[in-house]
Amino acid sequence: MSASAARHRDAPGRWSAALIDLADLVLARTCAGCGTGRTRWCPGCATHLGDPPRRRDLGTLSVWSTASYAGPVQTALVAWKDRDRPDLTPVLAAALGRAARCALSEIASDDAVERAVVAALVIVPARSSASDRRARGRHPVRDLARDAAVGLSRRGTVARVLPVLRQRRGVRDQSGLDARERAVNLSGALWVPPGWRGRLVGRPCLLVDDVVTTGATLLEAARVLRDAGAGPVVAATVAATELRRPPDLAGAVRRAD
Ligand SMILES: [Zn+2]
Description:
Blueprint: H1 3-26, H2 43-46, E1 54-57, E2 62-68, H3 71-82, H4 89-107, H5 111-120, E3 121-125, H6 130-136, H7 140-154, E4 159-161, E5 166-167, H8 179-186, E6 190-191, H9 194-197, E7 205-212, H10 216-227, E8 233-240, H11 249-256
Parallel strand pairs: 2-8, 3-4, 3-7, 7-8
Antiparallel strand pairs: 1-2, 5-6
The structure holds zinc ion.
Zinc ion binds at residues 31, 33-34, 36, 42, 44-45, 72.
């Protein structure tokens, strides 16, 4: 692409960035990470999303994450998901996109899979419960997935967001449960309705969520996608909690089955 064409292509991005900066000033937004300044996400907090993405091996699933779930990143994610900061979605989606590219490079190890990833990637938001959606009045993780899909498409990967995961039964609130209890709580709780399965068969899938804690939700979601006929499945999140010892969640789910 010529320099001139590149400038034209980037012009809308520069205009939208300028409008966002203006909106931050007019609305007197403060940084969602540290509460200072008149910007949604200050340069100091941005350094917490700047590290190379890291991989967590959950046995049957790789999860790539850009940041540790701590400090300003944790504060910002809570504000984005549970309070009134949907304006952070582009910031978080950019971080998610970096983790996603690492995850996709892992499964695109041969030419056929790489072609499939570039041409027909499916991005699946991790399920959020109906009560969560009612409380928030929006689908934060789905919004995040859509922004990440736009970012991947700009880099040449045709990605479609398909919210295919449905809850088959009620589950307990996950907070307060340990890794094994979470795995048992979620085992068999998700499904893909038959009408969606044809759009998954053989296609590479990227599961996305804001935070991975024990990995129980993502593991169960990956298992359900594979059962529905999906191709290779990997996962990406904005942030990851630090675990002292990786749990044997795959084993816990098998036993619960
Ligand atoms: Zn800040």
